[in-house]
Every structure is written in structure tokens, then in C-alpha cells.
């Protein structure tokens, strides 16, 4: 009976993946607060009723968009570098250099969605701000964990602070995202990345 009803149900009249991609791009361009439901449905090519039926409310759609972004090449590059590179220095050098190229890439909105999408939100949308802050802090914790492991392996001197270095790298990345949104080029951001890498502490002797 359940299968019969499912087959007779009205099929969804839109491509959910394409609609989510359109919503992600709009949130990325304008931020959460400045993006209205009307603008979302227009960009997604659906009616408000379809948005609510398929994604829930605007907040739920935004969270799904952020998770989708995090699985995409432009959103997942930091985690990939941490997993693939054999040393912490190689991993963070790759992260900074790839950020310099990815953030100003004209094929998508500038900067990082997770960094920029919830600036200047109202108090009623504090949950969105907290959601993104928690994601950023999770990345910071991953940075610190990788650096602590590197220190134990002798990649960093005993006097180096994994916590401070992780925070420094995260600060540089966030700054590069904003600079990209302000029009900085890949060449300019690469210069910033190389300067940041010059501050890398020495290995244990």
C-alpha cells in the first residue's frame, strides 16, 4: 500500500540539487540576512511552497546549503589538504596557497561562504551566526590537533604554541576571504600566504 501511494504521489517538479546549488550561490553572494525568501525562490526557479516542502524554512535551507558547500571542492579543500599532506607544514602551505587561488576565483562568489555569510545578522538570527561560528571553531580545533601531532613528531620546536599557530593561520585565512571579497587578486593573496608561511616556527633540533 505504501509503495502504491508513493508511486501515485505527485512527483517533485524541480531538480532539488540544482535548486540547492542556486540557493548556495545566492547566500554566498549576499549573506544570510540580505537574502530574502522571494529572491531565493526566484533564483531556485521554484514557488515558496516548494521551498518549504523540500527544504523547510530559510534557516534550514541555509544550513543545508552550507553543508553542501562544505562538501564541494571549494569548501572542502582545507580538510583534503590536512588528510593528504604528509607534514603539517605541507598541509598548511597547501591550504594557504589554495585559498589564495580559490577565494578570488571569478567562477563563483568571492571569499568563503562559512566565513562571510553571517556578518551583521540581527538578534533573531543569532542561531545562524552561532552555527557558522561553530563550524569555524571546529576547523580551528582541527588545525590545532594537527599542529600538536606535528610537534610530537618533531616538526615544531617545543617552544612553539600549536594553539597560537592554529589561531594565526585561521586569522590569515579569514582575512584572505575578506580581501578577496574586496577585490584582491590571486597574486596579491598568494603574497599574503607566503608572508604567513614565513612565520612558521622552526622544527625541533
From TrEMBL:
The residues that make up the annotated DNA-binding region are 36-55
Q: Which Pfam families match?
A: TetR_C_13 (PF16925), TetR_N (PF00440)
InterPro entries documented for this protein = Homeodomain-like_sf, HTH_TetR, Tet_transcr_reg_TetR-rel_C_sf, TetR_C
GO molecular-function annotation terms?
A: DNA binding
Q: Where is the HTH tetR-type domain?
A: 13-73
The keyword Transcription regulation belongs to this UniProt entry's keyword annotation: yes
Per UniProt, the keywords (alphabetical) are:
DNA-binding, Transcription, Transcription regulation
Protein name (Swiss-Prot/TrEMBL)? TetR/AcrR family transcriptional regulator
Which species is listed as the source? Answer: Nocardia panacis
**What taxonomic classification does the UniProt entry list for its organism?**
Bacteria, Bacillati, Actinomycetota, Actinomycetes, Mycobacteriales
Amino acid at each position: 500500500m505504501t509503495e502504491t501511494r508513493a508511486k501515485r504521489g505527485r512527483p517533485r517538479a524541480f531538480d532539488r540539487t540544482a535548486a540547492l546549488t542556486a540557493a548556495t550561490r545566492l547566500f554566498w553572494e549576499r549573506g544570510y540576512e540580505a537574502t530574502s525568501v522571494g529572491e531565493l525562490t526566484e533564483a531556485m526557479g521554484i514557488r515558496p511552497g516548494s521551498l518549504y516542502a523540500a527544504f523547510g524554512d530559510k534557516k534550514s535551507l541555509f544550513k543545508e546549503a552550507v553543508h553542501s558547500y562544505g562538501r564541494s571542492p571549494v569548501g572542502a579543500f582545507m580538510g583534503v589538504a590536512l588528510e593528504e599532506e604528509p607534514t603539517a607544514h605541507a598541509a598548511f602551505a597547501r591550504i594557504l596557497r589554495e585559498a589564495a587561488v580559490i577565494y578570488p576565483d571569478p567562477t563563483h562568489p568571492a571569499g568563503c561562504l562559512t566565513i562571510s555569510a553571517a556578518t551583521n545578522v540581527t538578534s533573531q538570527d543569532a542561531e545562524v551566526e552561532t552555527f557558522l561560528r561553530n563550524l569555524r571553531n571546529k576547523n580551528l580545533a582541527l588545525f590545532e590537533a594537527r599542529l600538536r601531532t606535528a610537534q610530537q613528531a618533531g616538526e615544531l620546536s617545543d617552544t612553539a604554541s600549536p594553539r597560537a599557530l592554529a589561531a594565526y593561520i585561521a586569522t590569515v585565512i579569514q582575512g584572505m576571504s575578506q580581501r578577496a571579497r574586496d577585490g584582491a587578486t590571486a597574486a596579491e593573496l598568494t603574497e599574503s600566504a607566503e608572508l604567513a608561511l614565513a612565520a612558521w616556527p622552526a622544527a625541533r633540533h
